[in-house]
Recover the amino acids of this structure.
């Protein structure tokens, strides 16, 4: 397929590279043009404008937040104005449910199609095409883009005909990850202050009832205090918890743990954690317990 890709950060660069490896014709755009170089060297076409990335059958966006997606989609020369009728915008960004609704309506009005396809996985999974994709949209649209989603991930989960549902699922998942990070940090602070080595503790956890990848990945980061370079920066984690709470407000679903996580992320950011991985939230319980950093 002929596909554009907008947003070549740590996640997007790997995703676009895997589309190329799968044989798709990929046109890449990034606000910082230097990030397009490695992909152009691999055979991608450089787009100098957003409109240039919208000439094919589909265009991906993989951007940091609602504001970035809104600019790319709705500004003059943006996706809604530039995408051909019948072409598909695939949004893999972690955005609000409200923005997904707005994008769905705008593309429908313009005679275009829209699929939400956020992903679970860190940059190493993106590079290895091992992401888990959560897709939602009309069955025909999801079927059309299935070869693209297969190229970036190991499995695609189709959750609804309504694109916004995929964004709700993604936010709920990041809320769960944040909850694991906080609870792991608290448990490790408890045993560490009692004289137990956190690495041995983690080995016991992940060799018994807690063998899930989420415990292995984030437990290792917390135990080793490996928060730089950030695979997923703390401000993005804070943003996702805020968006989960906004969705909960709209649906009238109390999320008391999410409220706690919001405050934990604000504490981390207020104390200089802007450049750290979001797993650094898991170091806060040790600090609260008076353990050395």
């Amino acid at each position: 397929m002929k596909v554009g890709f907008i947003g070549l950060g740590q996640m997007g660069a790997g995703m676009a590279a895997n589309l190329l490896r799968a044989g798709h014709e990929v046109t890449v755009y990034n606000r910082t043009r230097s990030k397009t170089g490695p992909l152009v060297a691999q055979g991608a076409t450089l787009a100098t404008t957003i409109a240039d990335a919208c000439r094919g059958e589909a265009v991906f966006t993989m951007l940091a937040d609602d504001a970035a997606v809104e600019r790319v989609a709705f500004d003059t020369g943006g996706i809604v104005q530039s995408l051909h009728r019948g072409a598909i915008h695939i949004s893999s960004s972690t955005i609000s449910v409200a923005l997904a609704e707005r994008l769905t309506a705008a593309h429908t009005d313009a005679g275009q199609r829209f699929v939400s396809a956020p992903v679970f996985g860190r940059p190493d999974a993106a590079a290895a095409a091992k992401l888990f994709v959560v897709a939602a949209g009309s069955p025909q649209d999801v079927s059309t883009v299935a070869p693209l989603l297969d190229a970036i991930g190991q499995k695609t989960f189709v959750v609804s005909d309504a694109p916004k549902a995929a964004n709700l699922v993604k936010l709920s998942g990041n809320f769960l990850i944040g909850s694991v990070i906080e609870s792991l940090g608290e448990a490790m602070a408890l045993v560490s202050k009692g004289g137990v080595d956190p690495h041995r503790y983690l080995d016991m956890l992940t060799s018994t009832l807690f063998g899930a990848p989420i415990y292995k990945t984030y437990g290792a980061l917390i135990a080793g205090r490996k928060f730089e370079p950030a695979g997923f920066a703390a401000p993005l984690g804070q943003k996702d918890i805020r968006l989960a709470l906004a969705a909960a407000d709209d649906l009238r679903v109390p999320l008391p743990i999410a409220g706690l996580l919001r405050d934990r992320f604000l504490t981390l950011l207020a104390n200089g954690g802007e450049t750290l991985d979001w797993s650094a939230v898991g170091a806060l319980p040790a600090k609260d317990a008076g353990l050395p950093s």
About this structure: Residues 199 and 224 are 8 Å apart (CA to CA). The chain has a mean pLDDT of 98.
